[in-house]
Design goal:
By secondary structure, this protein is of the alpha+beta class. The chain has five helices and six strands. It has one domain: VSR Endonuclease (Endonuclease, Chain A), CATH 3.40.960. The termini are far apart.
Length: 129
């Protein structure tokens, strides 16, 4: 049993997710931090080279802040709570799990969004063909 059967591959390599986690992404969408809202305003409606991004997207038992299904690209925005030893360890584990699905993982900080939004957008654009 892998991660308490939070996910498994089914037909056509689709991921099946524990129904108990069904409402978590919606709750997170309703409580997005300011930095995520700022970035979402630049990702939504296919604004970056026509690629569709989803917000608060479930992968396994985890939820990534933004995800582009066509490119298998996850974008995670890290706030202050991510910068302590235990959180960093958890984030590394989570990132490795997400990457195990052949998903590229891009990590951005709140500070980068507030101080250099153009640089953040450019960083995401470099991941897009």
């Amino acid at each position: 049993m892998y991660l308490d059967i939070y996910f498994e591959y089914g037909l056509n390599n689709k991921i099946f997710i524990n129904p108990a986690l069904k409402n978590k992404p919606q709750q997170l969408r309703n409580q997005m931090p300011k930095a995520e809202i700022v970035l979402w305003n630049h990702l939504r409606n296919c604004q970056l080279k026509g690629y569709k991004f989803r917000r608060q997207y479930r992968i396994g038992k985890y939820v990534v802040d933004f995800y582009c299904p066509k490119l298998n690209l996850a974008v995670e925005v890290d706030g202050d709570s991510h910068f302590n030893p235990q959180s960093e360890k958890n984030d590394q584990f989570r990132q490795k799990l997400v990457e195990s699905f052949n998903i590229k993982f891009l990590r951005i900080t709140n500070l980068e969004i507030y101080q250099n939004l153009d640089g953040v957008i450019e960083k995401i654009l470099t991941c897009l063909p």
